[in-house]
Specification:
alpha+beta; single chain; about 200 residues; elongated; 4-stranded antiparallel sheet
């Protein structure tokens, strides 16, 4: 009788021990496969996208002032002003001034601007190559293409009076600069504006 009880106990313990071993082995495999609780699993980067360029960065916007510099001619009579992919030649004197926005530069007769007449002579504006909205402007000349920045430069002229016609000096200065800047044109002879597509 004692021998039978002993057999049942040994058999029962063997079954319990086998069940525990199977349970522990299964749990161990699940822990290895799933990362287990308390274990950190490192996520490897996708090798297909790891070295691909990041196309999400926006392209740098055009800025007329990039690389801007001013150089005077040897005799000091001419001022060469280099903007972002175009250059304008101006008389080297204090009769005119200019100011810039991100995509344009506007030249003024300084005295007329200071006296509240506007004084605007011309605005050189950069347009995208497929943008033809400038054709709606009342007065403009195509100045040329900036091949390095893929921009079309347009000279926009005012159509209203921008100076004091009763001031003889101001009248003469405005008309002189106006006549000079009206020469702006794509590949035009003696154009004050040169672009990277020019000859």
């Amino acid at each position: 009788m004692k021998a039978k009880i002993r057999c049942f106990l040994i058999l029962g313990l063997s079954v319990i021990l086998a069940f525990c071993l199977i349970s522990c082995t299964g749990a161990s495999e699940n822990t290895e496969n799933s990362g287990g609780s308390g274990q950190k699993t490192e996520i490897e980067p996708d090798p297909k996208t790891k070295d691909e360029p990041d196309d999400t960065k926006p392209a740098k916007a055009y800025d007329v002032s990039d690389g801007m510099q001013t150089v005077a001619s040897e005799d000091g009579s001419i001022e060469y002003i280099y903007f972002n992919d175009f250059m304008i030649t101006m008389p080297n004197n204090d009769k005119w001034s200019y100011d810039m926005t991100q995509d344009s530069v506007t030249f003024y007769l300084f005295s007329a601007q200071q006296e509240g007449y506007g004084g605007r002579l011309v605005t050189i504006r950069a347009y995208d190559l497929d943008d033809e909205s400038y054709k709606q402007l009342p007065s403009y000349h195509v100045a040329g293409i900036g091949q390095n920045v893929d921009k079309l430069f347009i000279a926009e002229y005012p159509t209203d009076v921008q100076w004091n016609g009763n001031d003889k000096t101001q009248d003469a200065d405005y008309r002189e600069l106006q006549a000079y800047l009206q020469k702006i044109g794509d590949n035009a002879v003696n154009s004050p504006v040169q672009t990277s597509d020019g000859d």
